[in-house]
From TrEMBL:
Transmembrane helix in keyword set: no
Domain Thoeris protein ThsB TIR-like: 6-98
Keywords tagged on the record: Plasmid
Matches recorded under InterPro entries: ThsB__TIR-like_domain, ThsB_TIR-like_sf
SUPFAM superfamilies for the chain: Hypothetical protein MTH538
Domain of life according to the entry: Bacteria
Protein name: Thoeris protein ThsB TIR-like domain-containing protein
Length: 163
């Protein structure tokens, strides 16, 4: 049975790439909302967004941050990472900048979104528990194949690290 995971990402820049990863089908992700649906949630305020995130993370073992060019700087991605860690969920990141977008373009590699977080009373780096992967491949298809062939083991490794 496929693991249930939550995808965290920057919708405006990466929704096409995220759909590509989601369609691999190796893990079960939450339904992706449209830009209009998310804007409707945002209009209700920060609490509504936080409640939506909490509701969609419920019952998920792992949060997968799909890392595009600007993902690490996004307010709600940061919130999702913190909420996931505080909720005991496993975390991992996958760079998706070399997958093609709707227009057939790749983008610049983004920063590690876990790199600015420290956790616990001893302020250890979150990167101790949250690995990031930069999939191999000379083109979008190669990157896709690397993700497809490894995403399940990456999720299992994240769960093991979170222990």
């Amino acid at each position: 049975m496929a693991r249930k995971c939550f995808y965290s990402f920057y919708y405006n820049e990466d929704n096409w790439r995220v759909s590509t990863v989601k369609n691999i089908g190796a893990i079960e992700g939450q339904p992706l909302v449209s830009a209009n649906e998310f804007e409707e949630i945002k209009r209700k305020g920060d609490k509504a967004v936080a409640d939506w995130i909490a509701g969609n993370m419920a019952g998920r073992s792992t949060v997968i941050v799909l890392i595009g060019t600007n993902t690490a700087s996004r307010k709600w991605v940061k919130h999702e990472i913190k909420y996931a860690f505080d909720s005991g969920k496993a975390l991992l990141g996958i760079h998706i900048h070399r997958l093609l977008d709707r227009s057939g373009n790749t983008s610049a590699k983004g920063a590690n979104p876990f790199g600015t977080f420290t956790v616990g009373t001893d302020k250890k780096p979150l990167t101790n528990w949250a690995k990031t992967y930069d999939p191999a491949g000379v083109d979008s298809k190669g990157v896709y194949d690397t993700i497809k062939n490894n995403i399940e083991s990456w999720v299992e490794e994240a769960i093991r690290l979170r222990g």
